[in-house]
Structure to design on (99 residues):
């Protein structure tokens, strides 16, 4: 959603948004924000006239989903002895987007 909001702000304001000022994925152990923007492809432009509820109901492009799932799996792999709650969180995160 951050990338959709940034895209709309850029279109309305007429200048680029420094994405790391808005969201720093390093804080969450995710791949870089620009990797996610590239994986999202043209979706923000294609959906810029849609309400945010429509965006939330839209499955992101496959490269975005694959990047997300790889990040979630990497997070789990970095835990020596994952708890049942951490494993459940990974399952929930992996299922956020259908394939």
């Amino acid at each position: 959603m951050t990338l959709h909001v940034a895209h709309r702000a850029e279109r309305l304001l007429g200048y680029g948004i420094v994405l790391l000022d808005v969201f720093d994925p390093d804080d969450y152990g995710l791949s870089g924000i620009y990797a996610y923007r590239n994986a999202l492809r043209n979706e923000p432009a294609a959906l810029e006239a849609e309400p945010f509820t429509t965006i939330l109901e839209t499955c992101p492009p496959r490269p975005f989903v694959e990047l997300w799932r790889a990040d979630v799996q990497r997070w789990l792999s970095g835990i020596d002895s994952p708890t049942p709650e951490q494993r459940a969180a990974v399952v929930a995160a992996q299922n956020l987007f259908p394939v």
Q: What stands out?
A: The mean pLDDT is 91. The radius of gyration is 15 Å.
